[in-house]
Design goal:
Order of helices and strands: HHHHHH
Number of strands: 0
Distance between the termini: 56 Å
Number of domains: 1
Number of helices: 6
């Protein structure tokens, strides 16, 4: 008898959950989309922080070259680990990886920083336009 009551309670709770999900599915999907967009914006913010760190070092200083390479690898890894970034910036991760393994001049480093900064800005603007 008690098992039957428990089964009915489980069935009622399940039906209520399904009803609430169907009734509020647009709100729920909007909340998930908001969370995903927030996560994406955090990733873009982290990339911008890494660019600022990269700007603090000079590629012409032998003592700073290793840290520059490490940051370039961090950026490449973060881009290649995020499918939205790979799609938004095709080939950029491979470019950072290949340049991290070569001798890097200060003008080339600055060009990389500017390119990535501009791509991030473009992504943020396009995300803003989509959300309007």
């Amino acid at each position: 008898m008690l098992a039957g009551v428990a089964n009915l309670a489980t069935l009622a709770a399940s039906l209520l959950a399904i009803f609430l999900w169907l009734k509020n599915r647009h709100k729920i999907s909007s909340a998930f989309a908001l969370l995903l967009d927030f996560s994406y914006q955090l990733t873009l913010g982290e990339l911008k922080e890494k660019l600022e760190r990269l700007n603090e070092y000079n590629a012409n200083e032998a003592s700073e070259v290793e840290e520059i390479r490490n940051i370039l690898h961090e950026i490449a890894g973060q881009i290649s680990g995020n499918s939205r970034l790979v799609h938004a910036m095709p080939g950029l991760s491979a470019k950072f990886e290949s340049l991290a393994g070569r001798k890097l001049s200060e003008p080339l480093k600055r060009a990389l920083v500017s390119e990535l900064r501009e791509k991030i800005r473009t992504i943020q603007v396009s995300n803003f336009e989509v959300n309007l």
